[in-house]
Amino acid sequence: MSSTPSPAPAGSRSPWRSLRHRSMRWWSVANFVSNAGTWMQLTVQNLLVLQITGSAAATGLSMSVQAAPALLMSVLGGAAVDRWPRKLTAAVSQAALAVIAFTTATLVALDRLDMTTLMVLAAVTGTVATVDNPACALLGNDLVPAEDVPSAIGVGALVFNAGRLAGAALAGVTVGFLGTAAAYFANGFSFLFVTAVVPFLRPAAGAVRQVTGRAARRPASDMSVREGLAFFARRPRLLALAGVTGISAVFGRNYGLTLAVLVTGPLAGGAGAFGTVSTVLAAGGIVGAVLGARLRRPSVRLVGALAATGALLQIVAGLSPSLAVLLVLVLPMAVVESVSDTAGTAVLQTDPPAHLRGRVLGVWGSVGTLWSLGGPPALGLLMELAGPRGALITGGVVIAASIASGHLLHRRATLATSVTLRSKDTIPQPTLQTAA
Predict the structure, then answer these.
(1) Which of 129, 183, 417, 428 has the fewest CB within 10 Å, making it most exposed?
(2) Is 134:126 a contact under the CB 8 Å cutoff?
(3) What does the alpha-carbon distance between residue 58 and residue 68 come to, in Å, rounded to a whole number?
């Protein structure tokens, strides 16, 4: 399949500019199909665990078991993505996920699936995902020129949200007409569709090429996990990005938790009111993904500014006197969060050199899993102590203050370095003399 792009204006800021490349269009279609299948299975899986155990706690446990491998194994998965050809890695990992889905579907159809087996399959799925996630993320970027990467990431966010909505809707229809096993079979076929598309993808002119083969494997120490960890630890931009994202993940962003308690508690709304809030959040996420796709040169400074803006909106949301006021604030909160996510992802995936990007994404996967597992309990404890309004306000203040402090420290360090360099330039240097 040719990847010759259609003409586009120089310096275009269109959020859809990455789709002028044919391979990117096919990859987006494949991702939509795969995301719809995945969300169909996740929706059904929660219902299946409830049917087997009758326990909400067991449902949460199954989700944690699937996420847990990323905490320790993402760095290894990222190293594998750097070492092996990206297309081959993505195709094999998608095929492996298809096998797991078909296995689960067969066990469900035969009524042979128990909780232990389901947990094992969830853990295996999470393990494969530590390779599949960075491979698929970087493969999409490999298809477009560097200036179109933010567009590719924004389009990916749109595809993710569209697939999530479609998958959740299809899950109910599929289970109602064909049974639970059909959802797993459908997800398996969605993975096979991606596997079939991958071999035909071709990078566009100007896209960053992955180095593989002997050049990528010699010397072996250059492909180590340690190298990826060391690069991440020595890169101030990535450390700053991790700090901004981490503080935001713990004290903000978990609006499904904080806003649910705020709406049903102090604002005296019901499930329907929170459903409206959730819909507005989803719409804001889509709008933000479109705006984020317009970016050409995202930066950590932009991510920090957006996170601080979101924190201020969160503070005001905590003071909302009514549901109507909250709804007015929720849309920009979701937009700012989505644009920030797109900008941060673009920095993360383009800042490291090409041969290190898989391992950097692997490190990020481990750190992100730590936030996702630890953030909700910490926020829940804060709500127990301060209430939903207090949690939103306190969290917003902590985020904004942390970002402002980090900015001031960075500025002071930059000024100190500049003064030091200027003072060195003014020190008289000894005259060079010819050696005797």
Answers:
(1) 428
(2) no
(3) 15
CA distance 207 to 146: 6
Q: Return the closest-CA partner of residue 188 out of 131, 116, 107.
A: 107
Instruction: Please tell me the number of Cα atoms within 13 Å of 323 on its side-chain side.
Output: 18
Please, what are the averages of pLDDT over each run of 10 residues along the chain (436 residues)?
50 81 94 91 78 69 77 87 91 96 94 89 91 91 86 87 82 83 93 96 77 48 74 92 91 82 86 81 85 85 95 95 93 92 88 89 88 79 88 94 90 76 57 38
DSSP 129-182: HHHHHHHHHHHHHHTSBGGGHHHHHHHHHHHHHHHHHHHHHHHHHHHHHH-HHH
pTM here is: 0.77
Coil, strand or helix: which one is 320? coil
Q: What is the DSSP letter of 5?
A: P
Give the tokens for residue 428.
């008289």
Contact assessment for residue 287 and residue 359, using Cβ atoms and an 8 Å cutoff? no
Phi, psi angle pair for 183, to nearest 5°: -65, -40
How far CA 43 is from CA of 47, 93, 173, in Å, comes to 7, 22, 12
